[in-house]
């Protein structure tokens, strides 16, 4: 699926987190990490549970693309467990916005940004998340 390219403006800038707070992806964000699938979500959360301030320290926005998830499943099962997390998980529910994102099977998409301009797109293995994000 075609998505953003290097040089494009990352224009998904307002999303709600797991607590239904509107969060802005501002100019100070240096990376946007997008998780699409359950195994990558699980691995990412295992890492972040050990380092709950990591996202803020590294200026990373963490987006979970849940656009294909039925609302009832989200409300009954997924969101209650997300709400226990101390870090923000930005929830992408809009199918049209989701189509802008770059996807590879079994990978996390990592956008490096400079004032919302995409300067690099990487696809990372969720088991190696710490080494990629610590750069």
Low-confidence stretches: none
Q: Spatial order of the strands in the main sheet?
A: 2-1-5-4-3-6-7
Terminus-to-terminus distance: 27 Å
Based on CA inertia axes, which overall geometry fits?
A: globular
Q: Percent range for helical residues? A: 25-40%
CATH class: Alpha Beta
Based on CA atoms alone, the radius of gyration comes out at 14 Å
Number of domains as seen in the coordinates:
1
As a percent range, the share of strand residues is 25-35%
Got a strand count?
7
Task: Summarize the SSE layout with pairings.
Elements (H helix, E strand, L loop, with lengths): L13 E4 L4 E3 L6 E5 L2 H13 L3 H5 L1 E6 L5 H12 L7 E3 L2 H4 L9 E7 L2 E8 L4 H5 L2
Parallel strand pairs: 3-4, 4-5
Antiparallel strand pairs: 1-2, 1-5, 3-6, 6-7
Summarize the structure in words.
The protein is an alpha/beta fold and 135 residues long. The chain has one domain: Glutaredoxin (3-Layer(aba) Sandwich). Helix content is 29%, strand content 27%. It contains five helices and seven strands; from the N terminus they run βββααβαβαββα. The chain has a seven-stranded mixed beta sheet. The longest helix is centred in the first third of the chain and has 13 residues. The model has no long low-confidence stretch (mean pLDDT 91).
């Amino acid at each position: 699926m075609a998505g953003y390219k290097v040089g494009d403006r990352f224009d998904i800038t307002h999303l709600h987190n797991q607590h239904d707070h509107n969060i802005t992806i501002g100019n100070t964000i240096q990376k946007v990490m997008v998780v699409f699938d359950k195994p990558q979500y699980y691995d990412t959360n295992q890492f972040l549970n050990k380092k709950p301030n990591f996202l803020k320290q590294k200026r990373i926005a963490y987006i979970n693309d849940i656009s294909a998830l039925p609302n009832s499943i989200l409300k009954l099962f997924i969101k209650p467990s997300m709400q226990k997390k101390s870090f923000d998980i930005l929830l992408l529910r809009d199918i049209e916005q989701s189509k802008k994102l770059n996807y590879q099977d079994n990978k996390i998409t990592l956008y490096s940004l400079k004032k919302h301009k995409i300067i690099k797109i990487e696809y990372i293995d969720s088991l190696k998340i710490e080494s990629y994000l610590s750069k």
